[in-house]
Design goal:
- The chain is an all-alpha fold.
- It has one domain (2-185).
- It has nine helices and no strands.
- The chain is globular and about 55 Å long.
- This is TVP38/TMEM64 family membrane protein.
Length: 186
């Protein structure tokens, strides 16, 4: 019974991931994403927020960087970083909740089934949590897409209450650094 339930969760999760990849590829191929981000540029707060949401994914980071750079060229950097950081943190939270609730549970069940006691002990260590969290935070802070960093942070078992402010701060500074680099180059 348990194995069927695990397989159902795994198939559901794989289906969601596959659907999101197909949707992202369709947005990129049809150039619909370009239209959405171009329209968002007109409204600065909404544009920064939406570009921030797109800033987190491997499939949408390139057009989001272009939009954020354009917004930064004509608006105060802190304003774009603030609203872009909020959008990115909201997008990160959606991904984080999926990773934390589903992926971690599936990983622990798999480790228990395969009798990986040493690995399970490692996962329960506070130091391991801190290392995973720090590694994930560095990835989120970088202009790299956030998915791997969010997975590491989800495995680190950070509480949801702490995640949003940490994600916001990391994305705020990431967009701020991007803005400073864009201003110095152009």
């Amino acid at each position: 019974m348990k194995r069927n339930k695990e397989q159902n969760y795994l198939m559901r999760d794989l289906g969601i991931v596959a659907l999101s990849i197909i949707l992202a590829l369709a947005l990129v191929k049809t150039r619909a994403l370009d239209g959405i981000l171009s329209a968002a540029q007109e409204a600065t707060i909404i544009g920064s927020f939406l570009a921030g949401m797109f800033y987190i994914s491997v499939f949408t980071v390139a057009p989001a960087i272009v939009v954020l750079s354009e917004l930064i060229s004509s608006l105060p950097i802190w304003e774009v970083a603030l609203f872009g950081g909020l959008g990115a943190a909201l997008g990160d939270l959606l991904i984080f909740r999926f990773v934390k609730n589903n992926l971690m549970e599936a990983l622990i069940l798999w480790l228990r089934r395969h009798k990986e006691k040493k690995v399970l002990t490692l996962f329960r260590s506070r130091w391991f949590d801190y290392i995973l969290f720090a590694a994930g935070a560095l990835i989120v802070l970088s202009p790299l897409p956030d998915e791997l960093g969010l997975a590491l942070m989800g495995v680190s078992q950070i509480r949801n209450v702490l995640f949003f402010p940490v994600s916001f701060a990391l994305n705020f500074f990431s967009i701020l650094i991007l803005g400073l680099a864009a201003r110095s180059l152009f």
